[in-house]
UniProtKB/TrEMBL annotation:
CDD domains: UP_TbUP-like
InterPro entries: Nucleoside_phosphorylase_d, Nucleoside_phosphorylase_sf
Reactions catalysed, as given in the entry: uridine + phosphate = alpha-D-ribose 1-phosphate + uracil
Alphabetized PANTHER family for the sequence: FI09636P-RELATED (PTHR43691:SF11), URIDINE PHOSPHORYLASE (PTHR43691)
Stretches assigned to the Nucleoside phosphorylase domain: 31-265
Gene Ontology MF annotations: purine-nucleoside phosphorylase activity; uridine phosphorylase activity
EC number: 2.4.2.3
Gene Ontology biological process: purine nucleoside catabolic process
A cellular-component GO term for this protein: cytosol
Chain segments annotated as coiled-coil in the UniProt record: none
Identification of the protein by name: Uridine phosphorylase
Length: 288
C-alpha cells in the first residue's frame, strides 16, 4: 500500500490539512462553499449549532447543524488554483488516514455545492437571477494536469466551442465538464440551468475592457452567439469548472449555483446582492 510522503500531503502538527487547517473529524460530508470568507459567516448565522469555526488565509470553515443536518461551510477564495487546494484537501480529509498516510479502504463520497456570484451572458440571466452550472467550460487548464481527464471531458462540445470562437493557441485548451445530475435536479429544479465559463481572471479574461485593450475584443459576442445542441453559454465566474472536474475524477458529487450580479449584455450590475445571496444560501441549505 502506498504511503503518501509528507511532501505530497502536508499535515500540520495539530493533525489538520495544510491550507484549510481543519482536522478530519471537523468535516461533514455535506459541504457548501463560496469565494468570500464573510459569506461563510453569513451561512453559519443560519446554523442552529456551531461545532467549529476555523480561519486560515482565505479559507474560513464552519461546521454546524442546520435543521438537523450536519453541514460544513467553507470559503475557497478566488480562482481554480485555489480549488485544486480546497478539493484535494477536502478529499484527503475524508479519504486518507492522516495517521498512516494511506488511502482508506472505504470511500467516503462528499457532496459539494458552490454558492457564488456571477456575470450573466444572456438576456434570460438578468441581475438577481439564480443560474445553476449544468456544464462548465474551464478556461483555466487545471484538469489537464490530472490523468484520465479525457474520461470526464465532453470533447465534441469543446471542439465546437473552440471552432466557433476561433480559440487562440496562446490559451489553455478549454475543457467542458458536467455537474452532478442528481444534485442539479434536486437543488436547482426551479432555477435557470446553463453553461458557465470559469475564467482565469475577472477583467481581461472575462472580456472587460478597463484600460488595457483586449487581445480579442469580439470574444464575448462570439461566446454569446455560440450554441451546441440546445445549450448556450449563460454566465462567467471563476471556479465551477475545477470543482466539477476534480469532484468527478475523485468520485464526489458537486455543482455550482450563482446569483447574477452583473449582466454583460445589458451592461448593468448590482453590488447590493446580500438579500438575494441570503435567499440562495437558505435554499441550498434546505435542499442539500
Ligand atoms: O462570489 P464568489 O463565490 O467569490 O464567485 C465569483 O466572484 C469572484 C470574483 O469577483 C470569483 O470568485 C467568482 O467566481
Ligand atoms: O461578472 C462577474 C461577476 C461575478 N464574478 C465573476 O467572476 N464575474
Amino acid at each position: 500500500m502506498r504511503i503518501i510522503p509528507e511532501s505530497e500531503l502536508i499535515i500540520n502538527s495539530d493533525g489538520s490539512a495544510f491550507h484549510l487547517h481543519i482536522t478530519p473529524d471537523q468535516l461533514s460530508d455535506k459541504i457548501v462553499m463560496m469565494g468570500d470568507p464573510d459569506r461563510v459567516t453569513m451561512t453559519a448565522s443560519f446554523f442552529d449549532t456551531i461545532e467549529c469555526d476555523v480561519q486560515s488565509r482565505e479559507f474560513h470553515t464552519v461546521t454546524g447543524t442546520y435543521k438537523g443536518k450536519r453541514i460544513t461551510a467553507l470559503s475557497h477564495g478566488i480562482g481554480t488554483d485555489n480549488i485544486d487546494i480546497v478539493v484535494t484537501e477536502l478529499d484527503a480529509l475524508a479519504n486518507i488516514d492522516f495517521k498512516t498516510r494511506t488511502v482508506k479502504d472505504e470511500f467516503k463520497q462528499l457532496t459539494m455545492v458552490r454558492i457564488g456570484t456571477s456575470g450573466g451572458m444572456q438576456p434570460h440571466c438578468p441581475v438577481g437571477s439564480y443560474v445553476v452550472s449544468e456544464k462548465s467550460i474551464g478556461f483555466d487548464g487545471l484538469i489537464h494536469f490530472y490523468d484520465n481527464s479525457k474520461n470526464i471531458r465532453e470533447q465534441e462540445f469543446e471542439e465546437a466551442f473552440q471552432k466557433h470562437v476561433k480559440w487562440s493557441p496562446f490559451h489553455c485548451l478549454p475543457y467542458v465538464v458536467s455537474a452532478d445530475e442528481e444534485l442539479v435536479d434536486r437543488i436547482g429544479f426551479d432555477m435557470i440551468r446553463g453553461v458557465t465559463i470559469s475564467a482565469t481572471g475577472f477583467y481581461g479574461p472575462q472580456g472587460r475592457y478597463v484600460r488595457l485593450p483586449l487581445a480579442d475584443p469580439d470574444l464575448n459576442s462570439k461566446i454569446e452567439s455560440f450554441r451546441f445542441n440546445d445549450y448556450s453559454i449563460t454566465n462567467y465566474e471563476m471556479e465551477s469548472s475545477a470543482i466539477a472536474g476534480l469532484s468527478k475524477l475523485m468520485g464526489h458529487k458537486a455543482m455550482t449555483v450563482c446569483t447574477i450580479i452583473a449582466n454583460r449584455v445589458a451592461l448593468d450590475s448590482n453590488t447590493d446582492y446580500k438579500g438575494s445571496m441570503e435567499d440562495l444560501i437558505r435554499t441550498v441549505l434546505d435542499r442539500i
